[in-house]
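Aim 2, interim progress: modelling of the zinc ion-bound target.
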Amino acid sequence: MDTLERNSTAMDMMPIVNLFNEWHAASTSKKIRAVMVSNAKQGKYHAPVAPFGYLVGDTEDRLPVVDETNAPYVRMMYKMRSEGASSPQIAKALNVQGVITPSDYTYKRLDKPNPYVSNHLWNAAMVRDILENPIYKGSVVSQKFTTVSYKNHQKYIRDSDEWIVIDDAFEPIVDKELWDKVQEVNKSCSHGKVTKSGAILPLGGLMYCADCGAKLKNNTTFHESKKRGKYKLVTYICNTYANHGKEVCSSHSILQRIIEGLVLEDIRARAKRVIEDEDGERQRYLAIKANERKQQTEDESRLLKQAENRLAELDTIISKTYEERMLGKLPEDLSAKMLEKYTAEQRALTAQAEQYRKARVQEQQDEQDVERFIQRLKKWSDAPCLTRELCLDLIEFIVVHARPEDRNAPRKVDIYYKFISKPLADSRNLLLPQNSVEIHQQ
Ligand SMILES: [Zn+2]
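Predicted structure of the complex, ligand included:
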């Protein structure tokens, strides 16, 4: 609006017009968002460039098609990660093979120089992006990002339950099982730190100090004796002790050989028990999980049934009350009071029933978890030694206690198994309040 003439009627109109413009912009933005959501729900694909391993299809819905030039590298990355390789290790392997980076590939196809990068190498972040993207199992994810409002374009990530995910939208590059396995490895409390010699130790990053909650780190020392000659020892020690000394925490030192032997022995014993009496072990693990939840599942099923019956009754009572009020059979103040009472009961019961239903879902989840654990134990039952892949498959985390003062007293090590124990909410330190782990006997 032209407001050069300060006393014009345009000037008087300005607040109204501005208000209208504001409303118009907000309303358009709302409509555009609605169209975006609707497209996403139909599985339409919007990215201008397909992710590495795919090409944008030339059909109307622009769904990505597998690009066999790069798809094999994507498969290689997923396979390596599922076996426990870290993102930097995978980046290194890609660079050694001279694999072209995603952005270089895009520009190469456009026949233009890549203006954004100075080196043409893979890095860990590029690898992680690929290893977390559900597009590789054929799913379209949209509505992952949003802006604050139509005025503020700053992007932020929505909660994952707000994303729109369409599965089997197009041809996958890796199968769902492998994709899920990689997500599981990604979620492990250990990121897979590579040692100086370029390897990831089987238990690296999976152990915590019982006293300060820090991770244990590996420590290599070199020794010489007449009997053994020159030799090296790998031990795990508390990270707090390593960084701040014995005034803060004790070493918690444990030989790599000892802890690996102990873990392998425990896994073998469990596998043996499963092979000898699978159903007995299944029941035992289910009992551990049920006990962990401290819920009487039978009672809950009964209570859920009661709640559901009463909710059905309330539905009838409430509509009857309305009906009678409408027909003038019930005085207004009385009907209002009754309705208030019934709807309050309805609200409370609905919430309670929801709780019971969740517990029931949890029970089914427990059965699945125990089954998965048992299958994995069987898979590794005759493993000759501990490998990284085995540890990531079975172990959630391990808590190492200090060596007792009495040299003859046994030392305590708690092994928390995948699917049996809850994962740590925060992997940085065992003792963070959000973890609040209960030590339980398995
Ligand atoms: Zn410590």
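The chain has a mean pLDDT of 85. DSSP finds twelve helices and twelve strands in the chain.
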